[in-house]
Amino acid sequence: MKRFYLLLLLLASGLVPAAWATPPARDAILVFSKTAGFRHSSIPAGKKALMELGQANRFRVDTTEDASVFTYDQLRKYKTIIFLSTTGNILNDEQQAAFEQYIQKGGGFVGIHAAADTEYDWPWYNKLVGAYFLSHPKQQNADIDVWNHSTPATSFLPNRWRRYDEWYNYKSIQPGIKVLATLDEGSYQGGKNGRIHPILWYHEFDGGRAFYTGGGHTDESFQEPLFMKNLLEGIKWTMGRTKW
């Protein structure tokens, strides 16, 4: 009873102890994984890993495959929208317009792997994601050349980063993207983009921020410390937590 009256007194005086106060609302991100084409079996592993990242870094992670959440009033609740291996045409015209408005008002976007295999008839999305999927060879090891170590997403990566994944070839590569790393096509079979084969990039676009990684086809990708650290720092930048 004494504690109750003490709490009332402190509330009235505005001196509520931090341990008793309501904690501040955490930032939130939305992971969207709707597919209208090939469905990656790694999507559940990706969701789980992203939720763990959120718990460790004080942001809430909501997940959905329901495109009806793509209204501006719903999207504006989130600092960043992640397209986790989405495929095909997944948004209607009204939902596309809402997403465009969200980005134009400063929202963030992260594309993982097949986010580039999405919405081929939407030129604005091509510019946002940075490139479209063209083809891929079999899964194999490849060397990634990290060209820019000045960002928090790459400062810890080796100059040559060897890892196993499904390596996309790209088309409609946008000139405005800032490439962080490229694939060495001499280190694996099936590359078709030549000497400059982007695999990791970011840019500011149409009022918002976008980060893309071509990795993430396999479940194991989401257990790799370097891959997940790179992804985390990309998410934080799109959320506006860091400046590059």
UniProtKB/TrEMBL annotation:
InterPro entries assigned: Class_I_gatase-like, ThuA-like
Superkingdom of this protein's organism: Bacteria
Keywords assigned by UniProt, alphabetized: Signal
Signal peptide: 1-21
Domain ThuA-like: 29-238
PANTHER family reported for this sequence: GALACTOSE-BINDING DOMAIN-LIKE SUPERFAMILY PROTEIN, SECRETED GLYCOSYL HYDROLASE
Full protein name: Cytochrome c
